[in-house]
Amino acid sequence: MLELRLVQGNLLKKVLEAVKDLVTDANFDCSSTGFSLQAMDSSHVALVALLLRSEGFEHYRCDRNVSMGMNLNNMAKMLKCAGNDDIVTIKADDGSDTVTFMFESPNQDKIADFEMKLMDIDSEHLGIPEAEYHAIVRMPSSEFARICKDLSSIGDTVVISVTKEGVKFSTRGDIGNANVVCRQNTTVDKPEESTTIEMHEPVSLTFALRYMNSFTKATPLSSTVTISLSSELPVVVEYKIAEMGYIRFYLAPKIED
Amino acid sequence: PPCQNTLRPFFISF
Lengths: 257, 14
Known about the structure:
By secondary structure, chain A is mostly beta strands. Chain A has helices at about 10-20, 70-80, 140-150, 210-215; strands spanning about 1-5, 25-30, 35-40, 45-55, 60, 65-70, 85-90, 100-105, 110-115, 125, 135-140, 155-165, 165-175, 175-180, 195-200, 205-210, 225-230, 235-240, 245-250, 255.
């Protein structure tokens, strides 16, 4: 028996909007730790890792570890039917081939049940080694989204370079090239508007903008984004989900032949 | 142009 009650039901709606374009089908794993997902895109270039910790749910019952295969587009369709202020409960019986999403309006005057068919997904689970990153950039998520969108109108790839001057996002295309430099800026009144750069070594990596733009669909989940870079490793783009956990995107770099 | 890596060489499959 599984029963997970999330008062902030719209968090789940936002999570689905953030991942459904990157991944079609995925297993949601439920354990005493929380509700999680790890899935790669079809070309195995990007990976999404989601964790919603059990403590973040108002009620969390998971009698045994369960893996539920879901089509994310279908799940998003169902969650779109929940109101933004609705409480969402995820329910499944042991051995069942369906999952139920229950939506309750805040004043309890409307209760809806949406039952979705589960699917068998044979997915590879990847171990992500702990890593030391050469540079960690924390910036407003809306600013990062703006830069990715702007650069993708000029080119297909972005070079992200971190030096002691700041973080530089560069692209080039048929019509010209573009560079955006963000400097460390901690003097603003609100911490969520600041940019911080923790650099151990300068680093410069090239990535496909198509994937970066897809990651920025998670912007509504968090006011800040953390970008962790090492010359030997995939970049990690992390959006923290307040009091619940995180959504992390890993993207393999492009390498010169 | 630079070529796109996949994630597999970076992560441990199990």
